Amino acid sequence: MFYLLAIFLPLIGAAMTGAFGNRLGNRPAQMMTVIPMLLSAALGCLILAQVGFAHREIETVAINWFSSGALEVSWAFRFDTLTAVMVFVVTMVSAMVHVYSIGYMAHDPHVPRFMAYLSLFTFFMLMLVSADNFVQMFLGWEGVGLSSYLLIGFWYKRETANAAAIKAFVVNRVGDFGFLLGILGVFLVFGSLDFDQVFAGSPDIAGTNFNFLGFETDILTTICILLFIGAMGKSAQIGLHTWLPDAMEGPTPVSALIHAATMVTAGVFMVARLSPMFEYAPIALAVVTVVGATTAFFAATIGLTQTDIKRVIAYSTCSQLGYMFFAIGVGAYPAAIFHLMTHAFFKALLFLGAGSVIHGMSDEQDMRKMGGLWSKMRVTAVLMWVGSLALAGMPFFAGYYSKDIILESAFAAHTGLGTYAFWVGIAAAAMTAFYSWRLIFMTFNGPTRADAHTYDHAHESPPVMIAPLIVLALGAIFSGWLGFEYFVGHEMEHFWNGSILMLGEPDIIEAAHHVPEWVPLLPALVGVAGIALAFLFYKMMPTLPARVAGGFGFVYRFVFNKWFFDELYEKIFIRPAFRLGHGLWKGGDGQVIDGVGPDGVAAGVKNLAAGAVRLQTGYLYHYAFAMLIGVVGLVGWYLITVFGGGAG
Amino acid sequence: MGVLTDISVIWPELFLAIWIMVMLMIGVFRGDGFGAPIAWFAVIGFVMTGFFVLTGPIDLAFNGQYISDKFAVFSKMLILLGAGLTVMLSFGYNKREGTGAFEMPILLMFAVLGMLIMVSANNFITLYLGLELQSLSLYIVAAFRRDNLRSSEAGLKYFVLGALSSGLLLYGISLVYGYSGSVDFGVLETVIADNLSGAAAPPLGLVVGLVFVLSGLAFKISAVPFHMWTPDVYEGAPTPVTSFFAVAPKIAAIALIARVLIGPFGDLVAQWQQIVTVLAIASMALGAFAAIGQRNIKRLMAYSSISHMGYALVGLAAGSQKGIQAVLVYMAIYLFMNVGTFACILAMRRQGRMVEDIDDLAGLSKTNLGMASALAIFMFSMAGIPPLAGFFGKLFVFLAAVESGLVVLAVIGLLASVVAAFYYLRVIKLMFFDEPVESFDRPAGSEITSIMTLSAIVTLFFLVGLGPVYSSAGAAARSLFGL
Hints:
The complex is a heterodimer of chains A (648) and B (483).
Chain A lengths: L1 H23 L1 H28 L4 E11 L2 E9 L1 H24 L6 H20 L3 H19 L6 H32 L4 H11 L3 E4 L2 E4 H16 L8 H4 L5 H10 L4 H8 L1 H4 L3 H24 L3 H21 L3 H28 L17 H15 L5 H15 L3 H29 L7 H6 L5 H25 L4 H5 L11 H5 L5 H23 L3 H8 L1 H8 L4 H32 L1 H18 L4 H28 L1
Antiparallel strand pairs in A: 1-2, 3-4
Helix pairs in contact in A: 1-2, 1-4, 2-3, 2-4, 3-4, 3-10, 3-15, 3-20, 4-5, 5-6, 5-10, 6-8, 8-11, 8-13, 10-15, 13-14, 13-18, 14-15, 14-17, 14-18, 15-16, 15-17, 15-20, 16-18, 16-20, 17-18, 17-20, 17-23, 18-23, 24-25, 26-27
Chain B lengths: L2 H28 L4 H21 L3 E3 L4 E3 L1 H28 L5 H18 L3 H19 L6 H32 L4 H14 L5 H17 L8 H8 L2 H24 L6 H24 L4 H22 L2 H26 L2 E2 L2 E2 L9 H4 L1 H15 L5 H15 L3 H27 L12 H15 L1 H19 L3
Antiparallel strand pairs in B: 1-2, 3-4
Helix pairs in contact in B: 1-2, 1-4, 2-3, 2-4, 3-4, 3-10, 3-13, 3-19, 4-5, 4-10, 5-6, 5-10, 6-8, 6-9, 8-10, 8-11, 9-10, 9-12, 10-12, 10-13, 11-12, 11-17, 12-13, 12-16, 12-17, 13-15, 13-16, 13-18, 13-19, 15-17, 15-18, 16-17
């Protein structure tokens, strides 16, 4: 039962804080959410230990949720290794973010609301990862979307925050629509939404076709691609990524928890969870590979040029999610989940570290107005170094293990797409190292570019913010080294215990361990090269970046403007949609519905009333005339209707 | 059938006639100063007449020229109640405005006598006698303030148009007589039945006669297009007279129409149903739309009564026993709503002068919550908001119409009542949500306040007394169908 407790503790905290937080004040509100969250994190560790290492698999069916005809859905929870890893990551990061928020949000007037949202998000995320059927997963899926919306727009008085929240919600709707279609397709084809039954049926369905608009289409491929569109929305893959950078309008702890460590990885988790379906749909996997690899590269290029400290990390997140997807695309699910875990630690660390900087710099986010902060906040700087080393995949940091195995798997796939993913991944790794150190150098080194007042007030963050950073730093250093053997090493078979299906013989991870010598070395080498280049650009010759940007003007502008995705969408979708909406509002609603409906009727009544009043002239002969006309009319009508027929 | 039986049947009317003569003599010899006591005596006379009506025999009299059945009894009770209440409303007004001449209550009593004869008429000649007695009295009271231009104009218009309608009625009666050879309702019924059993269609002349008769009678209930006199007369006549106009004559006329249509012309239901439907639709619609444009509350009530007559005609158009029952219930409810509303209108005085604009009601809830609440109850009830009385009135007529297959008529009626709700609700909005203007004079007068309260209570809790009213109306309707 305590497994369920881990899931429902955050909900209890959120409900209590949401209901009573405003009356009790900030301190009790923080306690009411942080303590359940810490308990939940402890339970999360226990779950990972029991399920992952002691191989206990538990499915808890709580109650029948609803049944309608052939559709029967229960509240069902599935605790296998995959879920256990996710629960561990989510509760751990969430607990750290909760603690961190005590310090970060200390001066905010709406602390209880913030804490309640955070806990609510955690609950929905846990629902998502522990679901045993599509409907419950969708509940969690939409729930995290809602929480994300609420938290991005947390500072609802800022217009940009509201716009970003709406953008996140709408872009996610596009993905969710695909997901929903996929779920409907699953029910149509399998007649059930329970994972067990769907997974058992997948091999039989594989290869069957159905007729779609005259085209013979593979059913499973179609469903899997639809489901993947959902994953693309949630995980900000190319095309549906535009909301993620804007989501940085939310408070920084939110960016760390939702938009780096957990929610955005839901897409990766979902595809891994549905591996028994995707494995039988190779074309869908190919799509996943291409999308993932392309995103990894494309987001990294944009990261090179951004100046907002949080946006750099946001694009980095986008890029790292791309890594995870192409790992899945080549069939290396364990590698993807491994990277998901290590990434959660070091990316949360980076975000919270950035938050610490922002906090110390009086809410300044532009790196061009930082610099020289090393002397002011050494602990934060060291922790950021740790996070960046892990992100860049420097040997023996967490990212090194997970990123290497992904790239090796891509290489070992020995397919055209795998090779594409490998080389693109190498390029992205170099860029990752470059922009990470660009961030470090611009923020902490060199003479300061901040105004004197801000710089004088810059200060190290309080212990309540630093402590979670240290915990996450430990994860960023050791999680790769500790987890390697279990996630993708020799213990792998044992550890996953059938929670992920991999066809392929020998499996891809096994093959990844036997690649040529230079393949594992290459990521580390390009990483070092990237760091060296950043050192050259931002430490040795600070004038160089501007000259390079000037020299490659077009390329620079293209990348700096984020490949013009926002502008493109603005032109293709938003403007026409806006015009359509405006037209329907003014023309359809205003003129047709209101005009003919309420307004028209009211105006008609008014006219009729005026006419009726005019009839009453006050002249006696008019009155008499009306009476006689009435009689004549009645008699005449009579003669026509009653006798006209008979006489004729 | 001896003379004694005849006299016992017409005793209520006979008594009222004698009472009027005595009052007239007293008035003549004691002079104008005796107006107020005579008004009181009029009310006493109505009460006693009502007692005789209730206790009198159920029979025909004078060779079938006169009938007293349950239908007549029910209608007469409503007439006497309405007349009594409205005469009581006039006490205070007459005292203040100097219209307390003793002729006023005498004339009103004559009018009531005419109405009683109308509803008991079983012969076109008796009918015409009662109708003219009523009308001539009303022409005079409409112009009672002969020093007032509007009052004189109202009386004159009413008289000329009334004469025209009487002409139409008489012409129709002569046509009917020409084609059937009788003016007696009982004989007419058999003649028409015989006629119909042979031919496919009734004789043309008879039907045209029926149309003329109906037109003449429609004038009395101010059904469109014979309604033109109503707003002018309502506005011009002294307010107590208007309140009298709004209630008793309407009840008498609708009862008369019901008797004529169901009795002698009962077999021609297919023919007159169409006319009544047209009249009903026109009345409901015009009443609803024209009232929106009114600023004077008395004119508003004129259009309101036009549309109420339209609803009553819906029940009549059904042509069934249920329909007649619904009409009678409707008229009972109509009586209380109107008496109550006119009590409110009579309380609209400022510095001793009557005010009649709807805008004068603005913010009434802040200056006189009791009156505002009462008027709000009447307005809600007229708009047909459940569970007030007016809702049930409309409900029953629409049900009867639907049962007789007149679904379109019922739907039009519903739509018209939606439009009508606008101007009723506007009055409520004015009273409760607008800034108050000067408050009205207080006290309004004990008769007015008590009648207002009584009517409000009846309207508000009509549901409690619905059973008895409904069943006695049912008995009355059955008697009309000769069951």
